[in-house]
């Protein structure tokens, strides 16, 4: 074998090993990919039951119900659609009605979102980027406001 053939064999082997490594990494990460949806998008796209995803929006006022133990039931809204959510576990201290929330979990066959983790905003001006973008897209979020308000009501208040 000439030096040129040895070098090409070495380079070919390295490319093959690299391709195998990338393939294994992508295969391992395929179950960890979680898509983000607002309630309106979730209803429009008809996501199948059991699909892991994140939903974000505002906790709809008047829907928070504490069940037995550490279980709660509430609805997440973006002003366009509402998605019922159930969660068992400790809620963040800042979780309350009318505030921004991101829930990660899966839809069940009845269309109820079974969350296994809940994230709440940390002050009155912060909103997770995905939630703020989804609310802006729906025309619900206003920059610089203390809380998200429907754009129609904001114009009437002035």
Quick rundown:
By secondary structure, the protein is α+β, with helices and mostly antiparallel strands. It has helices at 3-29, 39-45, 129-138, 151-157, and strands at residues 35-37, 52-59, 65-66, 71-77, 82-88, 100-107, 113-120. A hairpin with a 4-residue loop joins β4 (71-77) and β5 (82-88).
> Can you say what the CATH homologous superfamily of the domain at 34-143 is?
Nucleic acid-binding proteins
Q: Distance between termini?
A: 84 Å
Helix content bin: 25-40%
Number-wise, the strands total 7
- Rg value: 22 Å
The main sheet comes to: 5 strands, mixed, barrel
Q: Would you give the CATH topology of the domain at 34-143?
A: OB fold (Dihydrolipoamide Acetyltransferase, E2P)
Q: Based on the coordinates given, report the CATH architecture of the domain at 34-143.
A: Beta Barrel
Order of helices and strands: HEHEEEEEEHH
Helix count equals 4
Shape: elongated
Q: Major sheet: order of its strands?
A: 2-4-5-7-6
Low-confidence stretches: 145-158
Strand fraction band? Answer: 25-35%
CATH C-level category of the domain at 34-143: Mainly Beta
* Mean pLDDT rating: 81
- Please state the structural category: alpha+beta
């Amino acid at each position: 074998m000439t030096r040129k053939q040895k070098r090409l064999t070495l380079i070919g082997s390295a490319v093959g090993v690299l391709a195998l490594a990338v393939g294994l990494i992508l295969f391992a990460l395929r179950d960890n990919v979680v898509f983000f949806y607002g309630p309106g998008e979730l209803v429009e796209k008809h996501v199948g039951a059991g699909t892991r995803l994140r939903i974000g929006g505002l906790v709809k006022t008047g829907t928070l119900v504490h069940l037995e133990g550490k279980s709660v039931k509430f609805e997440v809204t973006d002003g366009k659609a509402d998605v019922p959510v159930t969660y068992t576990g400790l809620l963040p201290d800042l979780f309350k009605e009318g505030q921004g929330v991101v829930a990660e979990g899966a839809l069940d066959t009845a269309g109820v979102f079974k969350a296994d983790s809940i994230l709440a905003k940390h002050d009155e001006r912060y909103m997770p980027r995905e939630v703020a973008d989804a609310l802006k897209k729906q025309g619900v979020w206003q920059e610089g406001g203390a809380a998200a308000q429907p754009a129609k009501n904001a114009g009437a208040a002035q």
